[in-house]
Amino acid sequence: MVTSQIRYVTCNNIYLSGLRSGLEAVARNNPAWHYQLVEYSLQDNSDIQILVMDATEYHSVSDVPPDQAKALDSRRTLVLVSAWQRMLISQLANDFRCSVLCVDERSFPMHDIIQLTMKKKRYLSPMIIRRLSPAI
Q1: 34 forms bridges with which residues in the sheet?
Q2: Do residues 120 and 97 lie in contact, with contact meaning Cβ atoms separated by under 8 Å?
Q3: pLDDT value at position 117?
Q4: Cβ neighbours of residue 63 closer than 8 Å, sequence gap 6 or more
Q5: Which one of 20, 27, 34, 51 is most buried, counting C-beta atoms within 10 A?
């Protein structure tokens, strides 16, 4: 049995609820996989597999608090953004290694996000990829 340590930083309750729902669905479909989702603290020394950061209130990376900004360069960090945050999305996609999930997606492949993040591979949601692609 594997228990993944998932932490979140200042997550809006609606996004946290959606995240928890997605994790529950993955756990139901994968009986050998378990998770522990708790709020992140600087004193947390456990082996964190995924750090979820709600950045939906920021316009650019410079708005992110310094103690949180250092996590943006980790492939184990999943940053939640809104589609309207063009500058932040561009900065995260081009200058950092974190995964980026747009909260405006109607659905998202939580299983794939977990797998990629735990393998330290980057996930960019389809809406983010479309935003970054040049207009055809």
Answers
A1: 3
A2: no
A3: 86
A4: 57, 88
A5: 51
Amino acid identity at 134 = P
Distance CA 131, CA 71 (A): 23
The letter for the amino acid at 86 is R
- The gap between the terminal CA atoms of the chain, to the nearest Å, is 47
Q: What six digits make up the tokens of 34?
A: 């378990």
- How many separate helices (H) and strands (E) can be counted in the chain? 5, 5
Amino acid at 61: V
CA distance 26 to 34: 9
Q: What is the DSSP pairing of strand 77-81 with strand 33-39? A: unpaired
CB atoms within 10 A of CB 105: 13
Q: What is the DSSP string of 53-94?
A: EE-TT-SSGGGS-HHHHGGGG-TTEEEEE-TT-HHHHHHHHH
Q: What is the phi-psi region of residue 10: left when phi exceeds 0, alpha when psi lies from -120 to 50, beta otherwise?
A: left
